[in-house]
Amino acid sequence: MSTQTWREFGDGPLSRAAASVYTLLVVGLLLALATLPGLVPLLLLGRDASNLPLVAVCLLPVGPAVSAALYALHHQRPDLTDLRPAARFRQGYRANLPQVLRIWTPLLLWLTVIAVNLTHLSVAAVPSGWAVPLIGVGVGVVLVGANALVIASLFTFRTRDVLRLALYFLVRTPAVTAGTILLLAAAVALTVLFSEALLALLAVLFVLAYLRIGTPMIDLVRKDFTG
Fold first, then answer.
1. Helix intervals (H) in 129-202
2. Half-sphere exposure of 24 (CA within 13 A, CB side)
3. Which has the least CB within 10 A, 4, 41, 68, 96?
C-alpha cells in the first residue's frame, strides 16, 4: 500500500477516533503501572488520621505519572500511521521527573500538615473555626499545584517561575480554576463514595479532562511566556 494511501487512511474521522481510543488505552495502562507502587499499599491502609503521612508517601508516584500522561496526551497525533503514546509517556516521565518532584513533594507535605491539623483540632484545644482558613489554604495549595503540574509537564521553566505562573493563572484564567475545582470535587466524591481503585481505573479520563480544562492556560503560557 502506498504512503499516500496510508496517509489518507490515517486522516479519516474513524481513524482519528481509533487513534484517540488507542492512545487513551495505552496511556491509561502506563499511568496505572506507574502509580501501582503507591496504589497497592494505599488500598491496604485504613481510613484513619494516623495514616495521613503514609498516604502522602503512597501518593508520591502519582505526580510524575500524571505529568507523563499529560505530556503524552498533549503530544498525541490523531493519525493511526504515527502513534507513539508509550514512547511519549516515557519521554515525558524522564524529562519532567526532577521538576515535578520539586513541586509535587512540597505539595504533599503541605497538604499532609494541613490535614493532620484539621483532624487534631480538638486534641490541640483549637477553636473549630480554625478549620475554615485551614481548608482555604489547602484548596489554594491544591489549585496552585494543579496549575504548576500542567505547566511543568508541558513547558521548561525554573521551578520558582512555574509556581509564579501557576499562582498568576489562578486569577488570569478563572474558568480553568473553576473547572479544576469541579474536577477535583468529582475525584474526591468518587473516592469517598466508592474507592481509590475506581478512581485509578478512570484516572486517564480525569487526566484528559484535566488537560482539556487547562487548555486556555496552556495557550496563554505559550503565547505570552515562550519565544
1. 131-154, 159-172, 174-193, 196-201
2. 16
3. 4
Compute the distance between CA of residue 35 and CA of residue 202 in angstroms, rounded to an integer: 13
pLDDT digits (tens, 9 = 90+) for 139-162: 999 999 999 999 999 999 999 999
pLDDT digits (tens, 9 = 90+) for 185-208: 999 999 888 888 889 899 999 999
| Residue 79, all three cell numbers | 493519525
User: From its phi and psi, is residue 79 left (phi > 0), alpha (psi between -120 and 50) or beta?
Assistant: beta
**Quick one: 190 exposed, middle or buried, by C-beta within 10 A (0-12, 13-18, 19+)?**
middle
Three-class secondary structure of residue 158 per DSSP = coil
Q: How far is CA 87 from CA 43, 73, 74, 82, 143, in A?
A: 29, 11, 13, 12, 29
In 3D space, the residue among 60, 53, 35 whose CA is nearest the CA of residue 202 turns out to be 35
Tens of pLDDT along 51-60? 899 999 999 9
C-alpha cell at 25: 488505552
Question: Which of 98, 137, 81 lies closest to 114 in space, CA to CA?
Answer: 137
User: Coil, strand or helix: which one is 195?
Assistant: coil
